[in-house]
Automatic annotation (TrEMBL):
This is Short-chain dehydrogenase TIC 32, chloroplastic. It comes from Olea europaea subsp. europaea. Coiled coil: none annotated. The lineage of its organism: Eukaryota, Viridiplantae, Streptophyta, Embryophyta, Tracheophyta. PANTHER family: SHORT-CHAIN DEHYDROGENASE TIC 32, CHLOROPLASTIC-LIKE. CDD domains: retinol-DH_like_SDR_c_like. It holds the Pfam family adh_short. InterPro entries: NAD(P)-bd_dom_sf, SDR_fam, TIC32.
């Protein structure tokens, strides 16, 4: 109850920010601390929180790489970024995060550009109400939200470590998760069943993928610390963001309920604030393996904080990807 009241009131936490803080605000306060010539990859940047994240980072002078399945949609986002900031450096590259082969092609294309890589924001999200499978024959929500970002991170990690070593600028990886991860119980978190569930529930699949995003951050943080790499990784909950769909429900609920529900929602800029904060704030220097919401560290679920589960998931994911890359699905 105390945390809910703080959220509704927008009371700031130790970082100096809270639920009402916007992406522009938290990055404006970073001005003077943001190194020049940063390069960031932002997945899911063709709409919503991802597009706002890309916009604000570009406004702060960061070169933006937008991986997109729909390049025409990405081109419209780029046009908007350049209209606001003609000096922005925005590069579009094709990717389908549900496809291992497509991720490989993207990484090969990006690395061929010879650019540094300081920031990787794993933001793209997929929610499917019905059971669908990727071209690799994996349930598509898990394939996109978790496995795709896992492989993307793996293939770009050495570039990030190399960039950090050469420039002295700490690399930062941000996994966009969700508070919904806490809905997952240990008995329902089975790697084999998440790949190919016999009984499917869209909300459960989404929650499982978001739990996996946090466990990924926990284990990769441990590995990076072990090799003394100057790269951090954290997971964030952006909040429940206002979209057009909320208006559709207004006619079916009372005005008082609508008012109460609307108080819990964030604007898109507020939703992007925690991602931008963890990516750029000097307060985040050296912070790794943590979970953030409203620009402040928060507790994640006990399962998400379980080091053994994080290691097991990492090991099984590595084995799966290794098999699939050596023997692609027909």
């Amino acid at each position: 109850m105390k945390e809910t009241l703080k959220y509704l009131a927008g009371i700031t936490g130790p970082s100096g920010y809270g639920s009402k803080s916007t992406a522009e605000q938290v990055t404006q306060d970073c001005m003077g601390f943001i190194p020049s010539n940063l390069t960031a990859i932002v997945t899911g940047a063709t709409s919503g929180i991802g597009a706002e994240t890309a916009r604000v980072l570009a406004k702060r002078g960061v070169r933006i790489i937008i991986p997109a399945r729909d390049l025409r949609k990405a081109a419209r986002v780029k046009e908007g970024l350049l209209k606001e900031n003609p000096a922005a450096d925005v590069i579009l590259l094709e990717i389908d995060l549900s496809s291992f082969a497509s991720i490989q092609r993207f990484c090969s294309e990006f690395l061929s550009l010879g650019l540094p890589l300081h920031i990787l924001i794993n933001n793209a999200g997929k929610y499917s109400q019905k059971l669908e499978f990727s071209e690799d024959k994996i349930e598509i929500t898990f394939a996109t939200n978790y496995l795709g970002h896992f492989l993307l991170t793996e293939m770009l990690l050495e570039k990030m470590v190399e960039t950090a070593a050469e420039t002295g600028i700490q690399g930062r990886i941000v996994n966009v998760s969700s508070v919904i991860h806490s809905w997952v119980k240990r008995d329902n978190f089975c790697f084999r069943k998440m790949l190919s569930p016999k009984s499917y529930n869209g909300t459960r699949a989404y929650a499982q993928s978001k739990l996996a995003n946090i466990l990924h951050a926990k284990e990769l943080s441990r590995l990076l610390k072990g090799r003394k790499a100057n790269v951090t990784i954290n997971a964030v909950h952006p909040g429940i963001v206002k979209t057009g769909i909320i208006r559709e429900y207004k006619g079916f609920i009372t005005d008082s309920l609508f008012f109460m529900a609307s108080r819990l929602l964030k604007s898109i800029s507020q939703g992007a604030a925690t991602t931008c904060y963890t990516a750029l704030s000097p307060q985040m220097a050296g912070v790794s393996g943590k979970y953030f919401a409203d620009c402040n560290e928060r507790r994640c679920s006990a399962l998400a904080n379980n080091e053994i589960e994080a290691y097991k998931l990492w090991k099984r994911t590595k084995a799966l990807i290794h098999r699939r890359l050596l023997q692609p699905a027909s």
